Amino acid sequence: MLKITKLNKSYGATQVLHDISLEVAQGQVVAIIGPSGSGKSTLLRCVNLLETPQSGQMTIGSQRLDVASMSRADANQLRQQTAMVFQHYNLFKNKTALENITESLIIGKKMPRQQANAIGLALLDKVGLSLKADSYPSRLSGGQQQRVAIARALAVSPRVMLLDEPTSALDPELVNEVLQVIRAIIDHQTTILLVTHEMAFARDIADRIIFMDEGVILEDGTPEQVFGAPQHARTARFLQTVHQPTTPESGPGR
């Protein structure tokens, strides 16, 4: 579903991503972990072309492009295969929860409002916010805003869903409600890339764990491999220093 080949990204003289190559199968859940500044969020933003890499190739489904020579139309076609959930929600402050979800359907996909509203209400119910359809972001908690943002991302039926540290801006007591929603949306059809500092959650829900440091992928394996027997000393040091909070109760892991 997703293939990245020799992706490079620099800001001026500072190279942030170094020849990143990665393949992810349809429906896989991949958690990307690593220290701050390791390039995790930049990688997600490059996949969504919010950041333009200097070189490399990307394929999502049947859409393939070379980033050095892509046209605006090429970029738009690839971007339409993805949806992103940001650290700070990025909701429209002047629109209700329902309007935030339906905006991309009505404006981007030219969907009739009644049909878009039906989809939006169903998604609000899925994330546990059916009673907040007419609420503006200022009347929602941080956890509720992030749940609306997840519903908005789901609305466009993306092939690849990108979640960039979706709990990092939340108060600790609100983290679990968002983690529960992420757990609930895993359907083994939509490919998910999740950048997170929630180590126990990543270990529980991910099919693969990728550890990044200084703009390169140092480790890529199952949760059991990466957390239980890391191959690189840098990975082991990182895992020894991070706090691993308790995940929401969930029964056996996948």
Automatic annotation (TrEMBL):
MF (Gene Ontology): ABC-type amino acid transporter activity; ATP binding; ATP hydrolysis activity
Pfam family for this entry, one: ABC_tran
Any one annotated GO CC term: plasma membrane
Localization per record: Cell inner membrane
The keyword Nucleotidyltransferase appears for this protein: no
Database matches in CDD domains: ABC_HisP_GlnQ
Primary localisation category: membrane
Domain ABC transporter as annotated: residue spans: 2-239
SUPFAM superfamilies named among the record's database cross-references: P-loop containing nucleoside triphosphate hydrolases
UniProt keywords, alphabetically: ATP-binding, Cell membrane, Membrane, Nucleotide-binding, Transport
Membrane topology field: Peripheral membrane protein
Family statement: Belongs to the ABC transporter superfamily.
Protein name as it appears in the record: Amino acid ABC transporter ATP-binding protein (PAAT family)
Species: Biostraticola tofi
Higher taxonomy: Bacteria, Pseudomonadati, Pseudomonadota, Gammaproteobacteria, Enterobacterales
